[in-house]
Amino acid sequence: MSNSQLNLNFSEGSVSLSFSGDAAKELQEALRELLSRLKAVASNPAGGSKRPTPQKPMEYQHRGEVFLEVFCNPNIWPSPFAAKILLTVRDERIRLTTEVELTQVLEDLERYLQQFGD
Prior knowledge:
Layout: E1 3-10, E2 13-20, H1 21-42, E3 58-63, E4 67-72, E5 84-90, E6 95-101, H2 102-114
Antiparallel strand pairs: 1-2, 3-4, 4-5, 5-6
């Protein structure tokens, strides 16, 4: 798959970066795995008698024309719908780091991958 512009939306802006369809699928899979960890945490409420099993943080990195890094600790969010990820986009001239809603990034990836017919 060729590179195209992936547009990631934030609550107060957006960023577009050159990204391949294969890389988008890889990121989407990593985020889906994060969702399952978030669901595991949410299914064991803190007030329950059984202590929830801590889930490992999600760390994703992609090195392309720009560097993209995604981080999320699933143990701090009460549900997948409340979860936010720390997103960093950088190259040799600029670095952007912001917190983004997980559901928004998943929607942006889905929209991006639709252009490839997947």
